[in-house]
Amino acid sequence: MSEPLAVAPAFSLSGVRQSYRPGAESLCGVTLDISAGEHVAIVGANGSGKSTLLKALDGLVFCSAGSIQAFGKPLTEDSLEESEFRREFRSRVGFVFQDADVQLFCSNVADELAFGPLQLDLPEVEVRERIDEVSRGLRLEKLLDRAPYTLSGGEKKRVAIGAVLTMRPDVLLMDEPTNALDPRSQVWLLDVLAEIKREGRTVVIATHDLSAAEESCDRMVVLSEDHEVVADGTPAEVLAQRDVLLRVNLIHEHSHRHDSTTHRHPHAHGHVHPDE
Amino acid sequence: MARRTAAAINGALAELLENEDLARTSGLLQGLDPRTRLGTIALLAVTVSFLHSLPAIVLVIAATMVLAAASGVSVVSFSLRVWTTAGFLAVLLAAPAATGWISPGRELLGHGALSVTSPGLLIATRLMLRVVAGAGIGLLVVWTTRWTDLLGALTALRVPDVIVATLAMTQQQIVSLMRTVENIHLARESRMLSLGTAAENRGWVVGRMAFVATKSFKTADDVYDAMLARGFSGDWPTLRRLRMTARDGVWALGLVAFCAMTLGVDRLVAR
Fold this sequence. Notes:
The complex is a heterodimer of chains A (276) and B (271).
Chain A lengths: L10 E11 L2 E11 L4 E6 L5 H8 L7 E6 L2 E2 L2 H5 L1 H10 E4 L3 H4 L5 H11 L4 H14 L15 H13 L5 E5 L7 H16 L3 E6 L2 H7 L2 E5 L5 E5 L1 H5 L2 H6 L3 E8 L2 E8 L8
Chain B lengths: L1 H23 L9 H17 L3 H17 L4 H20 L12 E3 L6 E2 H27 L2 H10 L4 H31 L6 H32 L16 H25 L1
Helix pairs in contact in B: 1-7, 2-5, 2-9, 3-5, 3-9, 4-5, 6-7, 7-8
């Protein structure tokens, strides 16, 4: 039997490189520690490697160089072959995919919520308790009998999150969680993240939505378009580095004309100009 | 063409929903344990493959219609679906066997290699009816069983993990790809200034088929990753407790008796 997994740090990455094909790296020497209970936002422009990094943290892609430790044990293809480690790792780390459509593969929402706990061989009574709890918390009670592909984008996202929360993971990985959500659903999601934070669970989100990252996380890691970590700190510290954010294409400069003068200033994606 | 394709895809998606609703209604087959349903229906399909006489095969086809009606399935839509898809394909496949070229014998229509012969017609009809009977049996299982129950039953019946995993991904893949194809057609429609010639439309469809095929590989990877991320290990446990009752026993005995009787009829007619 393998020894129990340590409590902290949740993840430790050292010089991680990953490429889907030769000559096209999606992560270049990423070194990073994520402690238990931290809420970390991985921010970067499209194609910077955020999703790949999350997949690497979830053991879905493996680094071509460097190493990843999860709960003090190496996270490799071989270690995930060990059933004891795989079971414990999967029960402790949940992943909400960017595209909820690929994550929802059961015939109805109730089955979707039950899938993870059943894979963990939990007793039926506990699985039902978890479904009740999560469906109440995420307002899914009326959707339990519905087929996932009949749901709206926001509903699918709620089910995708619920399907992971029923596994009660210690670490929640979320890829572009606010993507395709209407404003009300975005606020709801931020509330869910705040609740998860109160419970002391670790959350890692990949996003290019700086305002959502600032609101929900206590640490920001910036990936450049060259797939390297170029900034790491509290949201206030990172957001103060305007030149870095401009360089990595997370904010852009707008030209505005007021009467006869033109001035330029940076905007985060999704920013609403105060004059509007 | 784009509008027609998008409408057809919408229709197919709506049908998927109707099937799921149908599987939840109370009916003869829906009331059985999924393992019993799958096992006994598979036995019926195997029996069909041993039948030679047309009356015996027709008996099985009639039985599938009775089962459909007893399970709340519209016999008309069931028959239409079976005959317009499987029946049509079976006719195409069996047609050469009806000719003197493949099955020489007494000529009923025409002359020479392309004539329809008496033994050829018998062989082709038998082949077609077998396909129709088999397709009807398969359709009954799919229409009256919830997808997760079907996967749960396959797991319980010790079907290899790789087959269960592949099937698990199939439905989601199909829905996802249908949505993609629908959007592709609508996107093209929105940018088309003219209807285009038939040749242009055909060329475009072929090009998009290649695109969809490539995309399907990517989607398959994504869906499988999502399954792995939630601890998928090959088994497909289900919350609905699979429990066999006396009803399952009676049904199984009845179906075994029916299969034996059909085989008996087959032998009698063959004499």
